[in-house]
Amino acid sequence: MKRIYLYRGGCVMAVLVLMLGCKTQHELPTPREIPEAYEAVNQGLTLDSSSIATLHWSRFFQDERLAKLIQRGLENNQDVLKTNEKVRIARASLQQARLGRLPEFNVGLVAMERRFGHYTMDGVGNDDSNLSPTVPEDRRIPTPYRDFMVGMDFSWELDIWGKLNLEKRQALNRFLASEEMVSFTQTQLVAAIAEQYFHMLGLEEEIQILNKNIALQVETFELGKSLKNSGEESQLSIDQFEGLMLNSRNLLKQKERMLQSTRFQLYRLLGSYPFELELAAWEEAEEIPEVLAIGLPAQLLKFRPDIRRAEKELIAQQLEVDIAHTAFFPTVRLYGAGGFNAFDLSKLFLAPLSSVYQFAGGLTAPVFNRGRLKATYESAKAAQKVALLEYEQVVQSGYLEVLDLVNGYAFLEEQVEIKDKEVQVQQRSVDNASTMFRLGYADYLDLINAQSRLLEAQLEVVHLKVEQLANYSTLYRALGGGWVL
Questions:
Q1: With contact defined as beta carbons under 8 Å apart, do 334 and 181 qualify?
Q2: Which of 166, 317, 341, 433 is 20 to 30 A removed from 10 (C-alpha atoms)?
Q3: Residue 367, exposed/middle/buried by CB under 10 A (0-12, 13-18, 19+)?
Q4: Domain span at residue 118?
């Protein structure tokens, strides 16, 4: 009769499990595909799979001074160090998930003393047992009661539905995602250090340009004063010359202040207090390749750490749905314990009289809390959709970022070329205006305007070249930053 009941109960449980499982199947979403090629206006692109993203940053940045700063930043930047510690947390979670499939063993030693009241069930029962003639003297219960035990116990959840294996795979993907976060943080840092470095070089070049122009303006101012003394110029022209000179000096102080702020910002990125910075000459840093090797859009999925991280997070969230699905099935757990137990320490290890053991197995299945489990399952599916959208967003942002930088690179190249020609024209204009002013064929306003436009054009050239250098460094980071698997 018991076998019949057990058989019927097992059939009911199997049918319940199948019903719950069939109602919670789900399909994995598929992300949208990335375009096959970049649509850019730059004619200097390579249209094959060759990409600067395959270069490590130490090979990409040829400036040894910049390379030393980048290495120092990677070793000391607090954001990078914090991300490294998060990897250690993820590694510990992975180890915990791997060990979750093994039985849990515990070893214990218990010693206790207890006095039972005379008017309690235990007290009366102990007294009655001690009065029984069948109980030997050495087995009578002492008062107060002492209890000693040495033994071990275990508990093991059988992974019949693959839940523990799913949790291990999820922890592995979360760990891999944390490692990708380290690469992403380092990539951002490398690009930021390079950008600040080039900004400092540009500011120093602008300061040199201003000093040269101020020297020229002082010379013109002194010439104007001598011409005024001879009656050929008025006080108005002298004031204009002096005003232009003072304006340039004020702009010089502004650039020096910006250089100081940029230097401090670079110290923050390096994670260091101020030290003597060694910078390259402007002429050494402004060389940029004419042809860009940016590879194919599909390579972003392999090269960019943030996309790889989003992919791992998507996989982990998909596994979360599968884990929530297993909650609908019964859980099978085995228990056991064994050791030595006695109320007299001298008889504790008297085998087999003091040996004790127990074994048990249990099966539990959700019945009345199915609604709560279903809500958890639906929540996991919604989070999976969010992870998919975040993955698509990262891929789309990466593609558009590269496209924008490539087009910006082309426009900046044309702007620099045009502005270089303008500087040549403005320099020729200043030379002619200065000569004509000395000979009395040009007005002082002509010379002032020519000098002002030349200074403006020279500063704009430096600004555009710095922006071009920063754009090239950012493009390297946008393509993957050299962290290729």
A1: no
A2: 166
A3: exposed
A4: 104-158+331-364
Go through the chain and tell me how many residues it has: 485
Bond from prior residue into 136 cis (ω within 30 degrees of 0): no
Q: Is 133 helix (H, G, I), strand (E, B) or coil?
A: coil
SS3 121: helix
The SS3 assignment for 355 reads strand
Residues 187 and 281 in one domain: yes
Contact 392, 311 (CB under 8 A): no
Give residue for tokens 């993957």.
480
Residue 188 shares a structural domain with residue 73: yes
Which residues are 333's β-sheet partners?
157, 362
Provide the pLDDT confidence category of residue 313 given band limits of 50, 70 and 90.
very high
pLDDT at 196: 93
Residue pLDDT, tens place only, 378-433 = 898 999 999 999 999 999 999 999 888 888 888 888 888 999 898 898 888 888 87
Tell me: do 34 and 123 sit in the same domain: no
Helix intervals (H) in 230-304: 235-270, 282-285, 300-303
Least Cα distance to 217 among 177, 244, 253, 180 occurs for 244
